[in-house]
Write a structure and sequence with these properties.
With 350 residues, this protein is α+β, with helices and mostly antiparallel strands. It has 13 helices and nine strands. The structure holds zinc ion (ZN).
Length: 350
């Protein structure tokens, strides 16, 4: 009898050890995190967290779905591409209006005629052809009060926002850790980016360093499950309406695409704060990120377009040509996509 009790106690003790060892307090996770991580959390849309990462695989300059388009874009005329579009070829994304009440309150309609663009600006810019072909093949949702369910999330042009939801099981298959400094040392999923974005993020960081600025990576790839934990934690703390104004619902976070990285500075105590936008580093990013294929995804004056408040720290990779066009014409991703969608519809007589 005593022997059994002793054996039982020994077993219990062994079990205790395992649980503690394998459930560390993850930075920024919904179970609280340490003091340092909490100071980072300035905008719930970008609270960071940790999970195991996915598999790694190399990819070429533009990803699998866009390779064919980019390789022969030199011989293809955008006008021809538009003329050849047949409305029956286009399948709108499946949509749902479930749980959308209040979620789109911040958004106001985009009028393509008010964006200062002309069809020639799109059709005569060869660098935009892969994007045009992508938007012909994927008809994202642009209607408020509905959510479109993205099926193919593997393009560098993928749109995840309050109107378009990524597949819950989507994990990019080419996540790698860019060779850049982060404000933390642990090997966490949030150090990862898609291979193409990682390559160009290294170039951007090197150029910033050359200019005298020491940027730090804060939060890259974030799984659907991680975003779900963050969102639910915020709803529990702030309530649904307040959370929906600042936090991405699971499936709607651009971090799940592996194409976005939040950056911070030591002088900001590693926080994600609007002040970055007024600092030399933030101004440098605003004026130069496009040269490496990145945009400041959530600009200060465009909350009613993007649905998120100003985030000078959130960099989205979208390829140099599209990033430069967005920068040059002072657009958001949503405005450019809505404009191109209107061009496509004009051409298909929809
Ligand atoms: Zn972000």
């Amino acid at each position: 009898m005593k022997k059994n009790i002793f054996l039982f106690l020994l077993l219990g003790y062994a079990f205790l050890l395992t649980a503690c060892e394998f459930t560390p307090i993850e930075p920024g996770s919904s179970n609280g995190g340490t003091q340092l991580e909490n100071t980072v959390r300035e905008n719930t849309n970008d609270t960071d967290s940790a999970e195991t990462n996915s598999t790694d695989m190399d990819s070429t300059e533009t990803n699998s779905t866009d390779v064919d388009a980019s390789t022969d874009t030199n011989n293809v005329d955008a006008e021809d591409v538009l003329d050849q579009v047949d409305s029956s070829d286009r399948e709108p994304l499946p949509t749902s209006s479930d749980n959308t009440s209040g979620y789109h309150d911040l958004l106001s309609p985009i009028d393509p005629a008010q964006l200062g663009l002309t069809p020639e600006m799109i059709t005569e810019n060869q660098g935009l052809l892969p994007l045009l072909e992508h938007l012909i093949s994927v008809q994202y949702n642009y209607s408020y009060g509905e959510i479109g369910y993205v099926e193919e999330a593997d393009s560098i042009y993928v749109l995840s926002n309050k109107l378009n939801h990524l597949p819950a099981d989507y994990v990019p298959n080419d996540l790698v850790e860019p060779n850049i400094p982060f404000y933390f040392s642990e090997a966490l999923e949030k150090k990862k980016l898609r291979s193409e974005a990682a390559t160009h993020m290294e170039e951007l960081f090197a150029a910033a360093n050359e200019a005298g600025y020491n940027l730090l990576g804060a939060s890259g790839y974030r799984s659907y499950a991680t975003q779900k934990g963050i969102y639910e934690n915020n709803v529990a703390n702030r309530g649904l309406a307040a959370t929906d104004k600042v936090s991405a619902r699971p499936g709607h976070s651009e971090h799940q695409t592996g194409l976005a990285l939040d950056v911070t500075l030591e002088s900001l105590s590693y926080r994600l704060v609007d002040a970055l936008g007024e600092m030399d580093e933030g101004l440098w990013l605003k004026e130069n990120a496009h040269q490496y294929g990145f945009i400041i995804r959530y600009p200060k004056e465009d909350t009613s377009i993007t649905g998120y408040s100003y985030e000078p720290w959130h960099l989205r990779y979208i390829g140099q040509d599209v990033a430069t066009f967005i920068y040059t014409h002072d657009l958001t991703v949503e405005e450019l996509y809505v404009y191109i969608e209107s061009l496509i519809e004009e051409n298909t007589g929809l």
